[in-house]
Amino acid sequence: KAGVTQTPRYLIKTRGQQVTLSCSPISGHRSVSWYQQTPGQGLQFLFEYFSETQRNKGNFPGRFSGRQFSNSRSEMNVSTLELGDSALYLCASSWGSYSPNSPLHFGNGTRLTVT
Amino acid sequence: DAKTTQPPSMDCAEGRAANLPCNHSTISGNEYVYWYRQIHSQGPQYIIHGLKNNETNEMASLIITEDRKSSTLILPHATLRDTAVYYCIVRVMGTSGSRLTFGEGTQLTVNP
């Protein structure tokens, strides 16, 4: 069974540009969540999507947005990039129920560098 | 979600058991304990979770104290590939959904 797939693996952008990251969840998983990991702040929750609807949102500015498609694949977008947005962006999927037996499974992330 | 406290680093000899402690003294009755690990440049990997009973799977064992204020993750026979940052997370099932609060974790180094 294929794991969570994130593309691209690495990305270099210039300040002010926008970027779109993609995530394909494990087959059958309906929930996709996004996390940002930086050396200074650690792993921080961005948002979660379930059945194409945002179900939960972290404390990030509106420049960070996402969406989920009917096949559960998800994209996140960051507009007007800032140097501080340089980070490893992780996607995680789960069955989506609130059952404890629905742990998150993470992809290997997209490493975004903003210059 | 309750706060967790873990030692910043630990060492273990290859082939020996690695015992990673976690303190979660403010855990509430409906919060589960989850363990993840992250090997450098990879995403976090789910290891195990539990509520109040001890749990075991093919990767590890989880021992939760009777008062649930602390837990220990046990890797029975550590290998070099177990070198990683280990995160202990408490998570209430319900509206928090897939929102996990990661702390600093414990850097486990397995030495040959």
Shape of chain A: globular
Secondary-structure content class of chain B:
mainly beta
In angstroms, what is the radius of gyration of chain B? Answer: 13 Å
Oligomer: heterodimer
Overall pLDDT confidence of chain B: 92
Number of strands of chain B: 9
Largest sheet of chain B: 5 strands, mixed
Widest beta sheet: strand line-up of chain B? 1-9-8-3-4
Radius of gyration of chain A: 13 Å
* Largest pleated sheet of chain A: 7 strands, mixed
Tell me the helix content of chain B: under 10%
What's the total helix number of chain A?
A: 0
- Which class best fits the helix and strand makeup of chain A? mainly beta
Global mean pLDDT of chain A:
94
Total number of helical segments of chain B? Answer: 0
Write the layout of secondary structure elements.
The complex is a heterodimer of chains A (115) and B (112).
Chain A: E1 5-7, E2 10-13, E3 19-24, E4 31-38, E5 42-50, E6 53-57, E7 64-68, E8 74-78, E9 87-94, E10 105-106, E11 110-114
Parallel strand pairs in A: 2-11
Antiparallel strand pairs in A: 1-3, 3-8, 4-5, 4-9, 5-6, 7-8, 9-10, 9-11
Chain B: E1 9-13, E2 18-23, E3 31-38, E4 45-50, E5 55-56, E6 61-64, E7 70-75, E8 84-92, E9 106-111
Parallel strand pairs in B: 1-9
Antiparallel strand pairs in B: 2-7, 3-4, 3-8, 5-6, 6-7, 8-9
